[in-house]
Amino acid sequence: MPCPPVSSHPRWLRLTHWLNALAVLVMVTSGWRIYNASPLYDFSFPKGITLGGWLGGALQWHFAAMWFLAVNGLVYLACNLFSGRLKRRFFPVSPKGVLHDFWAALRGKLGHADLNHYNQVQRLAYLFVMVDITLLVLSGLVLWKSVQFPLLRELLWGYEGARHVHFIAMALLVAFVAVHLVMVALVPKTLLAMIVGRKEPI
Amino acid sequence: MKKPIQDAGLDESSILTDARKILAPQIEDRSRRSFLLRGLTLGGVAMLSGCNLTDNDSVETALSAMSRFNDRVQGWLFNPNAMAPTYPASMITRPFPFNAFYGIDEAPTVEEESYRLEVTGLVTDKRTWRLEELRAMAQTEQITRHICVEGWSAIGRWGGVRFSDFLKRVGADTDAKYVGFKCADDYYTSIDMATALHAQTLLTLTYDGAVLPREYGFPMKLRMPTKLGYKNPKHIQAIFVSNTYSGGYWEDQGYNWFGGS
Ligand code: HEM
């Protein structure tokens, strides 16, 4: 079936992607400052890479940016789901396929000619980060309003459990971003596509 | 079944270290009044090519507008029938951490004999109360989790008068928007009426079965398990019912006013 001549990165995707990147940056850096007020583990984040200046400032950034993260994320998921793009671009994905593509990538045998096609490692990574951000938002809801969301609170091991979930989900998100940035640096034409949405051929 | 117990384990190991670490940043934070004007460091991001967020009034305005929006959302989310979880006595955090905007030695000493609680504003019975009168009212007790804005939490046992009983007794206008508090340590805060009337909101006179000690707020502390720690005033001297917003010690510096959980 011939593909309709649409951009591989439609405008709503590029918009929500960059808004998300900004929201994540603010959420993560202000979150680090909030963490520092009462570190859950045996370390603190260097003050210089945190946002907000003091706890109250960081909380204001965090509780403002959370709306942008959540609303923007919902718009992204809804567009992705209802346009059929989610199914088209991220499925199928299977353990075997992921291993196969991962192995191919290591040997430099994975093509990036067609930006319309995500390989299975990409699919898994992107699906993972969608779930991870969802988990961040849900555990954040428990930390913010633990009395008002009893079911969610119990599912996430109570208030103290949700602190750990929230932190671990943040760490995984940061790990995703690190790998993501390396990948973009390795295949810079994807960045162009994500900015201007131009289609093939390069 | 085992979950709460695990929880307690986490608490106990972390609370003590946390509580110690907390005091230092607290004191550091205390002097930061116009925090946004001063403190916005988006460190690594090289201050967006010279545009210093620190001097940016519009950032501050936008962030406080969002904070007021969050007050409204929380007021709307607040379910008067949703109860904060309660715990068995075995899960009480010992020792329960001291926390205030000053060190433990500076906690105010209030004399019981001369103490009078002042009640003013939109109430029919404007008068002062002695502690015995409050002790003579129906008492109730609860073991709940105190959650600090800094992230740590601790379980404690408080007893006293249900605040809604007290408000009824003084003939408070429960359609009013706010209840405000002034304290012996110069702390002040205000809360929404819905939370004031919540069944778990207690005007506490005891801690763990004994008279509320000085470090936990003698002679009385308003304990709300549906709000963060800084919303729970200690050493209360005056209570007023009002329709005028009066903020609070931390709230005026940028903490969210509703501060609910
Ligand atoms: C900060 C958090 C970020 C998250 C959570 C994130 C997440 C994602 C996701 C889920 C996709 C797939 C979108 C889709 O096709 O539906 C994607 C694609 C992409 N992102 Fe990000 N991203 C982030 C930051 C960034 C940054 C900072 C850059 C660039 C410097 C970037 C560059 C790209 C590019 C170029 C693509 C398209 C890659 C491709 O064609 O495979 N992202 N990102």
Automatic annotation (TrEMBL), chain A:
It holds the Pfam family Ni_hydr_CYTB. It is a multi-pass membrane protein. Residues 9-195 form the Cytochrome b561 bacterial/Ni-hydrogenase domain. InterPro entries: Cyt_b561_bac/Ni-Hgenase (IPR011577), Di-haem_cyt_TM (IPR016174), Hydrogenase_cytochrome (IPR051542), Ni-dep_Hydgase_cyt-B (IPR000516). Keywords: Cell membrane, Electron transport, Heme, Iron, Membrane, Metal-binding, Transmembrane, Transmembrane helix, Transport. It is found in: Cell membrane. The chain crosses the membrane at residues 12-35, 61-82, 124-144, 164-187. Belongs to the HupC/HyaC/HydC family. This is Cytochrome B. It comes from Pseudomonas umsongensis.
From TrEMBL, chain B:
Pfam families: Oxidored_molyb (PF00174). Residues 107-250 form the Oxidoreductase molybdopterin-binding domain. InterPro entries: OxRdtase_Mopterin-bd_dom, OxRdtase_Mopterin-bd_sf. This is Molybdopterin-binding protein.
